[in-house]
Amino acid sequence: MSAILYKRVDGEVKEFRVDAVRVHALLQDGYFASPELADADSNETGKLSNEEVREAAKEAGISNWKTAKIDTLKKKLNEQD
User: Fold this and answer.
1) Residue 65 backbone phi and psi in degrees, to 5
2) What is the pLDDT of residues 27-55, one digit of tens each?
3) Residue 79 DSSP symbol
4) 52-58, long-range: CB within 8 Å, 24+ apart, which pairs?
5) pTM for this one?
6) 10 Å Cβ neighbour count for 32?
7) Percent of the chain beyond pLDDT 90?
8) Contact, 46 vs 1, CB < 8 A?
9) Which terminus in the chain has less CB density within 10 A, N or C?
């Protein structure tokens, strides 16, 4: 079984098809479950700052992007796929 993860590489969001058993490790290593979160990684570190998450939520049209907890915004962004 495979899964699709995303990572920003050279300014572009790339899609990667990976074995499901590798998902957890890759998520810890800078890959993202949604293209919106990968796109938000503007400095390509694999880790999102609070500002990057809030900006991605704003662009995705999440109404409470200013006040919601960061974890909540990440979940909402992941659910939009």
Assistant:
1) -60, -25
2) 999 999 989 889 999 888 899 999 999 99
3) H
4) 53/77
5) 0.79
6) 23
7) 70
8) no
9) N
Residue whose entry in the numeric block shows the structure tokens 């050279």: 10
Tokens 């109404």 found at:
63
Both tokens of 1, joined, read 């079984």
C-beta of residue 53 within 8 angstroms of C-beta of residue 73: yes
63/24 Cα distance (integer angstroms): 29
* Single-letter amino acid code for the residue at 43: N
Look at residue 62 and tell me whether its pLDDT is greater than 60. Answer: yes
